[in-house]
């Protein structure tokens, strides 16, 4: 089977600062990768590469065997931590937008029966994320968790080949965050998605998904910290992430959330 | 006792505080006017409130002996028409050029420095050019307003477009939008309320250029009238006209604000006092 995503010896440099080096990664369709690592370790750069916002300085990225387009497109959905939904559109309008843009290149709007069909599809998607009662509200009238539900619905209605999540739950309360985890796992299973999720919360990384990628510097020069970039230091199938591995990941200097002891009940 | 910065007036005292400066100004004028009129009943500089009211009634009800028109309405209509045309054209240019500069890097690289230089030309300095090119009629006055406020609106809108979160533009692309669709469905609807803000801010300047143009060459208009009667020291005409112009400016601003709130409720959520 062709891998959904393949990084072939990808380097990312800005001037003489190396952000990512020698990155090789193969991700099969249907995998749910969570990406953790210290700030400045290239997690967000990886996401920007996948989006097409950045192009690799060296190496190449393949999407289903084809070179990844060099700009964002409808095959890759994204949910950011903030500003993921359009403030000037209602909840329904936000989800409808992608369907309208796809069907109507000039006006970006649908009319009549085509609009009703699209509306039905959008409403079904909104009901799946639990926003069936808020169709005519504007995003500013929604709580943070509901806004992120809307952002998920907006992306998923396009049936992207990859869903990218950039710390999507970082600004939410713990209780809401748990609900969102349930939702994301359910949507992932039901829609057979391939997911890349960047998170600061390593426990979230261990809990969600099928595969944990830990980013950190592979080499380190104290006199010239920018000389070496980050790579994948741990690539763990979630089933094998036992307490020892978790401790090892957490114990690494510079690893994410290293100040926090592993929570009980986390190890599987 | 709370700190001064934490003391907020109630509803009644808010209204009273808002009125206070107006009342003080009116009282001050009244005493000054009384004092001057007591010394010289023919003083023209500070006419009494009753004289002002009489003259306002005369201006709004009696037809002019020369033209048969009621001067204040005639002047108001002429001025508002010029103002609406000038501001309307500026807003249209501002929206199109501002969005183009803000949204498309190739256009920005080509034209933003040019617009920046254009905006530094003092509009009054080119007024003679406008009179020479467009004649002394309506066009030159409208063009002066356009020259005066368009650069500000263009640059403000360009700024507002560039301030839209990068995430929204990326998100639109992941929904399959092409450049035109992004402008049409994402950028334009979000900057129209910001255009109204920019127009509100530039209205004062628009009036300034309108009255300047009318003062120099016109046969009707609020600015023309003020400058015409200046040579007779007719403060009883000038002062009501100034109050009237101020009232018109205030009403225009108020209407724009209300329109924006009605038409773009999402833009105004989270404003203080709502």
Automatic annotation (TrEMBL), chain A:
Coiled coil: none
Keyword Protein transport: no
Assigned keywords, A-Z: ATP-binding, Nucleotide-binding, Transport
PROSITE patterns: ABC_TRANSPORTER_1, ABC_TRANSPORTER_2
Molecular functions per Gene Ontology: ATP binding; ATP hydrolysis activity
Protein name, as recorded: NitT/TauT family transport system ATP-binding protein
Cytoplasm in keyword set: no
Domain ABC transporter per the UniProt entry, residue ranges: 5-242
InterPro entries for this protein: AAA+_ATPase (IPR003593), ABC_SmlMolc_Importer (IPR050093), ABC_transporter-like_ATP-bd (IPR003439), ABC_transporter-like_CS (IPR017871), P-loop_NTPase (IPR027417)
Automatic annotation (TrEMBL), chain B:
Major location category of this protein: membrane
Annotated Gene Ontology cellular component terms: plasma membrane
Domain (ABC transmembrane type-1) ranges: 76-256
Protein name per Swiss-Prot or TrEMBL: NitT/TauT family transport system permease protein
Membrane topology: Multi-pass membrane protein
Membrane-spanning intervals of the chain: 12-32, 83-104, 111-133, 198-218, 238-256
Similarity comment: family membership: Belongs to the binding-protein-dependent transport system permease family.
Locations listed in the record: Cell membrane
Species this chain originates from: Thiocapsa roseopersicina
Swiss-Prot/TrEMBL GO biological process terms: cellular response to sulfur starvation; transmembrane transport
Record keywords: Cell membrane, Membrane, Transmembrane, Transmembrane helix, Transport
């Amino acid at each position: 089977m062709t891998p959904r995503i393949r990084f072939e010896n990808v380097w990312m440099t800005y001037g003489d600062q190396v952000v990512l080096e020698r990155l090789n990664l193969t991700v099969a369709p249907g995998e749910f990768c969570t990406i953790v690592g210290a700030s400045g370790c290239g997690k967000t750069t990886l996401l920007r590469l996948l989006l097409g916002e950045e192009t690799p300085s060296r190496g190449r990225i393949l999407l289903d065997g084809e070179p990844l387009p060099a700009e964002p497109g409808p095959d890759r959905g994204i949910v950011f931590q903030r500003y993921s939904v359009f403030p000037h559109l209602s909840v329904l309008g936000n989800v409808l937008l992608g369907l309208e843009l796809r069907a109507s290149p000039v006006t970006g709007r649908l009319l009549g029966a085509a609009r009703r069909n699209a509306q039905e599809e959008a409403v079904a998607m909104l009901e799946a994320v639990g926003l069936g009662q808020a169709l005519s509200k504007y995003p500013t009238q929604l709580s943070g968790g509901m806004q992120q539900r809307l952002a998920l619905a907006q992306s998923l209605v396009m049936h992207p080949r990859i869903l990218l999540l950039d710390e999507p739950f970082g600004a939410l309360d713990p209780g809401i965050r748990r609900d969102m985890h349930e939702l994301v796992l359910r949507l992932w299973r039901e829609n057979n998605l391939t997911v890349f999720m960047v998170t600061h919360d390593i426990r979230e990384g261990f809990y969600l998904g099928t595969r944990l990628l830990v980013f950190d510097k592979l080499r380190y020069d104290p006199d010239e910290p920018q000389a070496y970039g980050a790579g994948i230091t741990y690539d763990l199938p979630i089933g094998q992430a036992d307490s020892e591995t978790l401790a090892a990941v957490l114990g690494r200097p510079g690893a994410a959330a290293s100040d926090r002891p592993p929570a009980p009940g986390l190890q599987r | 006792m709370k700190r001064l910065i934490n003391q907020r007036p109630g509803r009644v005292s808010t209204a009273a505080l808002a009125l206070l400066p107006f009342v003080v100004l009116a009282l001050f004028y009244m005493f000054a006017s009384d004092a001057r009129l007591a010394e010289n009943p023919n003083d023209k500089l500070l006419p009494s409130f009753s004289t002002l009211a009489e003259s306002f009634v005369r201006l709004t009800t009696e037809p002019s002996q020369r033209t048969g028109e009621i001067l204040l309405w005639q002047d108001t209509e002429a001025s508002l028409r010029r103002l609406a045309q000038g501001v309307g054209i500026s807003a249209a240019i501002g929206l199109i050029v501002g969005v183009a500069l803000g949204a498309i890097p190739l256009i920005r690289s080509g034209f933003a420095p040019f617009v920046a230089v254009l905006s530094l030309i003092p509009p009054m300095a080119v007024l003679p050019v406008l009179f020479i090119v467009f004649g002394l009629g309506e066009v030159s006055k409208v063009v002066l307003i356009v020259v005066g406020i368009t650069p500000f609106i263009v640059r403000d809108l360009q700024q507002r477009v560039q301030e839209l979160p990068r995430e929204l533009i990326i998100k639109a692309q992941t929904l399959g939008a092409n450049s035109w669709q992004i402008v049409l469905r994402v950028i334009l609807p979000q900057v129209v309320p910001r255009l109204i803000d920019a127009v509100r801010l530039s209205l004062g300047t628009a009036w300034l250029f309108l009255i300047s143009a009318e003062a120099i060459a016109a046969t009707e208009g609020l600015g023309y009238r003020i400058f015409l009667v200046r040579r007779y020291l007719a403060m009883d005409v000038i002062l009501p006209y100034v109050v009237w112009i101020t009232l018109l400016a205030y009403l225009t601003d108020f209407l724009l604000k209300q329109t924006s709130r009605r038409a773009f409720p999402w833009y105004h959520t989270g404003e203080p006092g709502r």
